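Example (one chain per record):
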Amino acid sequence: MSEIRGGRAARTAGPVHIVGAGLLGASVGLGLRELGVDVTLEDLSPTTVALAADYGAGRVRDASDPEPALVVVATPPDVTADAVEAALARFTESTVTDVASVKLAPYETLRARGLDLTRYVGSHPMAGRERGGAIMARADLFTARPWIICRDGETPAASLAVVEAVALDLGASPLEMTPEDHDRAVGVVSHLPQIVSSLLAGRLLAAPDPAVGLAGQGLRDTTRIASSDPELWVQILTANRGPVVELLDGVHADLESLIAALRDVDAPGAKRAIAGFLADGNRGVARIPGKHGSSERFVRLTVLVDDQPGELGRLLTELGELGVNMEDLRLEHSPGAQIGFAEIAVLPEVVEDARRDLTERGWRTL
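Predicted structure:
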């Protein structure tokens, strides 16, 4: 039966039991609890499960609790298969899903053990944060994010519906993929970016302080995810090593060609090769979905904002008064200066009017 809270009916029928009360597990719990769904929690760490419960992600499961309708395994990737196997054996009527970021390795491990996977539905919400733990959990973590569901020919419609209901309740967009297609896809859109970001950030270790002091938004953008948990990423990358190595081989070949062109820029075709790599980047970034998953592109208007209390709020208020729909906002501070740069993404057809109107109101734009 659906629960009601705040005028919204939950599709998910509780109880839901979450194994692993870190970032993803606690975020699932928080989102479902907002809808009034009964959520129970467990974790190998008593402190972790107590913290998640204190934050409102659910309650610690008691031996007298009834069997859950759904078990969500939110453990690290290297123990996901073991946790799924344990859940299937412990809860003989429950649908079991996991939210690990790699899908093929756990599935093949479970199949190799000869388990009946009729009640198992692998899934992966494409959401997260640079830092983990229940303390970083959010009820809206999955809002407007894809939630990949991996089914096979043996998956009953009822089990699939249970997992889809949770994804929808948490504001995500369910998508079906095979485990193989999922791992290839996340390899290029998630795992490769993590590697490139980490390698780039690693080059800063040997850079002198004055050089690092010149860092701007470009460096911050490209190294943002480099602060992710190394232990977790070792598990992810080793579990998805096949697609990742294939991608890195391609990057390696591109780097060798680019290095060769830069070593002898006067060689025939060298400058064209360099331009080709940059142009490929332009075309590639144009494929990244924009707001709400659309392919609509935006232009950026930069406004200089004095580093004083209330100035950014005043800018946002005046943009609203001017009827400018801000699609995105990015802030950058100028090192050593009491000024910041607000990069505002707007539709191309409004950028000139917005620039003129802001200038008339005393704002400085670039």
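Caption: Residues 6 and 22 are 26 Å apart (CA to CA).
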